[in-house]
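#help-structures
NK: newbie question, is this the right format to request a structure? protein is Methylenetetrahydrofolate reductase (NADPH)
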Amino acid sequence: MALLPFRKRTHRPDSTAALQAFLQGYSIEVMPRTAAKVADFPALLPPGTRVYIAHIDGTPIDDMVATARRLSADGFTVMPHVPARLIPDEATLGDWIARYQGEAGVTEALLLGGGLNAPRGDFHCSMQLLETGMFDKAGFTRLHVAGHPEGNRDIDPDGNARNVMEALRWKQAFSERTDARMAIVTQFAFEAAPIIAWADGLRAAGIDLPVHIGIAGPAKLQTMIKFAVACGVGPSLRVLQRRARDVSKLVKPFEPGQILTELALHKAANPDFAIEQVHFFPLGGIKAAADWTAEHGGAEARAAAATA
């Protein structure tokens, strides 16, 4: 009797363990008005969590600095947005940097274009902010920049990624000629495969900045669709649109479990994958995002936070 050859077993990472590992060191975004509704951040987030503070048009710098000061006092790593198109001039930029550092001990920032159709003053892009050298002179040690896995119609109106990629190559070169520790933090999306292809494309183009992938935290489907459309999310919006065809799901939270598990398994199988961390946009609320994350990978970190 002929013996059948044994199939070689391939290692398949455990999805639960992969997700837990992928979520370690995650960051989250707040706005001053949403942060004000949170009574106790240390009860929600692991110690040392990087908390980005979104600077929306119309938000006074006093509110930004006060939020940064509070979060810093609570033991978190604070990274305020610095939107180029909202800044009138270098004097204002210098004042913001000095206040963040002097009043809140901030040494990190996310530099953005800012989303306005036209600049309010001298700056129109994050590259101009970097070129001032003001962050380096002030002792900022980490500067993050934006990434767009599904493109950005404001930057590339014709739908290609030519201008976006050119800007990332410039930022890559900046990181190589300076001491700045840099990373790309992205807009959120809802499908893993296009994100994987985009991240691999960065490496193929010689861009080796680490990527912190933007993920929308749990939220009602209607809320998620509203934010996705407003933020210019691309083709992966179809994930939400397919779900919306089932009326019974419209009022149920849409959770990021599937996309994160797929990305986590890919990272476990490909350790050199460009995505290093997860960044949450808490569209359904900060507590909902923090609770979901603790349940799926940060339970032990939450326990440490509660006893610290």
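mod (FA): yep, format's fine, and the tokens are attached above. The chain is about 45% helix and 15% strand.
NK: thank you!
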